[in-house]
Input
Amino acid sequence: MELHINDQTVSISAEPTLPLLWVLRDLLGMTGTKYGCGMALCGACTVLIDGQALRSCVLPIDQAAGKKITTIEGIGAMPVGAALQGAWQEINVPQCGYCQAGQIMSAFALLQAKPNPSDADIDAAMSGNICRCGTYTRIRAAIKQAANQGGKT
Amino acid sequence: MSAVANELASSQGVSRREFLLRLQAMGGLLLVAHGLRIAKAAPPDPPKYGAEGMPHGTVDNPLVFLSVGDDGWVTIVVHRSEMGQGVRTGMALIVADELDADWTKVRVQQAPADEEKYGNQDTDGSRSTRHFIEPMRRCGAAARMMLEQAAASTWRVPAAEVRAVNHEVVHQKTGRKLSYGALAKQAAKLPVPPREALRLKTPEEFRYLGKGGVPLADGHDIVTGKAQYGIDPWFKDMSFAVIARSPVLGGSVKQFDGTAAAAAPGVQKVLQMPETVATAKFHILAGVAVIANSTGAAIAGRKLLKIEWADGANGSYDSDAYHAALHESARQPGKVVRESGNVDTAFQSSAKSIEAEYYIPHIGHATMEPPAAVARIVNGKCEVWAPTQAPQVTREDVAKHLGITPENVTVHVTLLGGGFGRKSKPDFATEAALLSQAMEGRPVKVTWTREDDLHHDFLHTVSVEYLKAGVTADGKVNAWLHRSVAPSLATIFDPSINHEVPAELGMGFINMPYDIPNLRLENPEASAHCRIGWFRSVSNIPHAFAIQSFVSELAASANKNHRDYLLELIGPARKIDPRSQQDSWNHGESPERYPVDTGRLRHVVETVTQEAGWGNARAPGRGQGLAAHYSFLSYSAAVVEVDIDEQGRIKIPRVDVAFDCGPQVNLERIRSQLEGAVIMGLSLAMFGEITFKRGRSQQDNFHQYRVTRMNEAPSDIRVHLIPATDWSIPLGGVGEPGVPPIAPALCNAVFAATGKRIRRLPIKDQARRST
Output
């Protein structure tokens, strides 16, 4: 099976029902995408599939084949991704940091759809991503800061 | 001598020494050990406090903790575990400050488990910074003086004429400069100056401490997906395991059929977990492991296991029935743990008495990174990669289970994707090592699924707190009876323990600092039926919830302003010796050095109410609630504001926190820890509950174990740090003390907004209007 991940094509052999998360993490060693719940409840495993934020823990690999997959390892190549990563560091968003890859992926999809999101937009886009350390106020601030940069780094 | 020590020593079948070994893992219980030693031998050793009371104490050798390269890069070794509290930034910052290093030329390196080399590594109890600020300052100062001496020798001038300034040594008379990199080789050959010769900076000279504005050491790696957690190490030939564990504590595998699982795609091996080793501190649970070529394949294979469990004695554990039993216990006299005056006669002379009972259920840690670890064994030597808060305990437990010496176990401490106390118990690392052994040493990663995490956690205790106050005609409290009933976390070391141990009693229960003439505090018996462990803030959570809710009830009953009532109850500013409160623990710290300072407690109450606009008129449905609590040697107060609609749905627009931890090292991380404490406190207050039926945890995943999400979190959290008047004040903790006031402040706010009292957590729908 061929996968297009972060502008590279890789070949893998796996059960078609195996979730993309485990293909990335266990077969390919791309561990930036995190496991958190396995039921699309926490958002830690969020990746972009053709630009849409999806939970890779419940996405069978055969549904990702042939599509454009973007992970936290590749998001910085795009201006909005780099702006988010910069804002996250300037505002010192992370505590333990484990959920932040998923948070940044969801924020990226939000800014693609709404370059200047309201608080309600942020709530709607980000409430599927749990942060147990409780960095929500800083995530909100970082999204607004990245939005104000308009994807310019 | 501690009564607990007696209880421990008289328990059947386990030696005193073994108890002490196990209890060492709890750090705070070391006073039990001192107590035993005093009882057995005279003359007694003087008690050791703080870091020196912990296993392996401290090390302050700069050659252990830092190096300077020819290229000028300074590498600082951090020996405590990073779980979001910022210790990799803060600890390195302390060394860098005394070294007068340029922070942009500092690298942080994580120490492996080796307490003889680095000193104690147990990262819990909110004590890394307070225990290691002084040794780390000495490391930095010694290295700075070595660099200065190297420059002075080069220039053939007295050392007193040179000065280290921001990664260079300067000869002030001539303006000559040499970089740290240029001096590194020569400095390394010099003897380390003895402790008494060190010149530590004055606070005015600090470059970083207390200044803020320092970015996170791991910030870039985290946002780019490069950061390595315990779930992340990856090798080409590695196997991936999940384990089906006994759903009931103490249960075992009666029989199992792994045929279908073994035949599932990608599955490499199915095996029963070995029996646990009795002398290990943290036991693994009975179960059956499925090992595969990916975690996903192992999870799919595990679903095909057929296991018949023997549940054992805890198979009837039912949390509703247990709540009822705790309630009954709380209505009976229990072991008296603190008493002054005469409560019984005072109640008779009171104008009225008020009583209330509070309940907090089991709470799960639910770290976003579930327990996970990787192990491999090569030529009889085991390497473990683990997100552990207890590196040395991990090393010892793995060695015991493999039947090898600790010297043959290397524990690489990864970043922790959340800890909160769960990852002080490294059963998951032991599992990885045993499964690597079963796979002839090849690397094996064990991942706990979220279901595993919520079913088999070392849960926060469950508690009933009964309070009764006698009040005079003018509303003053003249009698106070408090019964705290909760199974002890010490039961994971000895299931027969049925009272709170000193470390639990001393978490806001017996060291309650109110100015009340007659009081009696009791601790009736309670036994444990699931694994209980320390959860961020530990017993402070139920104690603060009960006491801070009750004070609000008393104030309302007396028609007084809660703030004024609380300040009156705290009484005048004074320093209370914890021994006078029958608190033998005092967070393991010296009672002289760390008294309970009611002046500081008053100050956080005054600050937070002033900043939050306490007492201002509010719209209908809005209300503010207040709570204050002293824990981990720090003083914390919170005002939570709620906005409750017609249906009783709670919104939390704003939370203010005032916090006094003494001198502040990394301002930015202190603020972030307190912001996080607000969210964790709101989570447990609104939603946090693990329930049991037939001995089994009933919550599987985040749809049943809810935690606060972005749309439910306050958009406005304001942290008001109280500046220390003086760096000679000893440091308090930061990671935990922000949590306890949040739940009572929230419930008091719900009362202010609606008149409804919440005495049972979680709140869930209790504020909803019945229609």
